[in-house]
Specification:
With about 525 residues, this protein is α/β, with parallel strands linked by helices. It has two domains: about 375 residues, Glycosidases (TIM Barrel, Alpha-Beta Barrel); about 110 residues, Lipocalin (Beta Barrel), CATH 2.40.128. It is about 25% helix and about 25% strand. α5 links the parallel β11 and β12. The radius of gyration is 26 Å and the shape is elongated.
Length: about 525
Amino acid sequence: MQSKGFSWFSRSAALLLLQLISVTVLADTGSSGFLINQDITGGWYDPAQDGAGLTLEILDGDRAVVIWYTYDINGNQVWILGVGMLDGHRIVIEQARITSGGTFGVDFDPAAVQRNVWGRLELMFSDCNNATLAYEGPPAFGAGTQQLQRLTTVNGLPCDDKRRVRLGFTPFPAELPGPNGEMLLSTYAKINADADIIAHHLDDGIPWPEAAAGLGVENYPGGLQADWIFRRIMTPASHQVYVAITPISIGRNSLAPYRGEQPDTPLDVLGEPWVSADFNDEMVKQAFLNHAVNAVEYFRPDYLSIGIEVNLFRQLAPSALWPDYFELHRETYQALKQRYPSLPIFVTMTGNELLEGFTAADPADQAQVLADMQAFTDILGISWYPFLSTFGTGDLPADTYRRIDALTDKPIVITETGYPAQFQRLEVSEGVTVDLNGTLEKQDTFMRDLLAAANARRFRFVIQFVTRDYDALCNALQCSDFSRIWQDTGLWDQDDVERPALSRWRDLLQRPLVN
């Protein structure tokens, strides 16, 4: 995503995107707002049929075992059971089985037990405590539904209305600031009212020579100082703070540019030795560490990222640069952890590249990035724009968020995300047109599923990058079509009208937060 300095991705990133975007439109099958997790394990029954019921247990691999205790038409007790797959808010068992032939006690013979296919079961959950059982059995049983309620829970697995994830925005503006900063003030007002964490995404270069000299923020270039001062003043005192810096360029293929009076100033203006500097040069290491310390001391963040979308750098930069960058990261991480042992320090990665089949990225390279970073990141930060994957604006695989969760045993955060709420036809490169088939409904569905997964899987936070569509900003700056890819991902449209996805966001935000 673009930095606040309004610098856009390089041509190399644009070419990468052309490999990733799919213009295929897939149908949205829709689902309940509830996402199944292990918390629903327990006993369930239909109050209208007290004396019968079922138990279910969520297993590894997005599977569940269901045992339905009921009766046949002659009043005989029967068990109907099976293992089914989780699909969003559903558990589907295509071949449930019924058992017979066993005898009680010492005469029990396992070989005598018959397990015959009975029919189909489908459980659809609307929340933690309510579900619909749909069944299709043999003629003696027929087909029908039952309305189930939770009967028991498993100790230590609460299923409640609590919120376990913080929600936040960046202060990315929707248009150029006016003389009194009205647009920025409006953006911060939204952050104050509709978030409890703020993301300062400082992806616009590093003040290399000033930081290398050990100078504090008060001696940084005036443009940078003004930006940081305003950010700190406007940050709500009640919110947690996430700060992201990076030594990598926004094109994710080279050393970051100079953050002088203006963002993303080419290193050429600094001359030697900076114009030919490498990631593992001692002056670069010292400058980046000093800058990270300055950022921590200035913003006092609850979370600090020191590398943004580093797996893209592995993919886009010359392969020889990765060891040099990793050396810089490792030494910076170790020095910062020694100084700030309780501060979560981490890197972010693009989720599309980490999930095999979402892009053409080499799975081995992506796995190597995860392996390299394992000991030098406290959290896995995910940059999550799945509409830029091979799935476009169609349905994502049902196991998408389970796969994200399985990438690491460390906490997960969504450091930036968004989804288009309207159609755009964009010429992202000369002669190459891409359709983004966004709609209000698809954005709402995306937000529903993301928030349900983040809450159920206990991600630390989710950052929606754009508050309001930035049509006016791009019109003023005469953005390229490529720069407009994220234009319509706001939870408010270009006229500041609230979108349905914002209601979804607020529904979760208003729940009691469990830290």
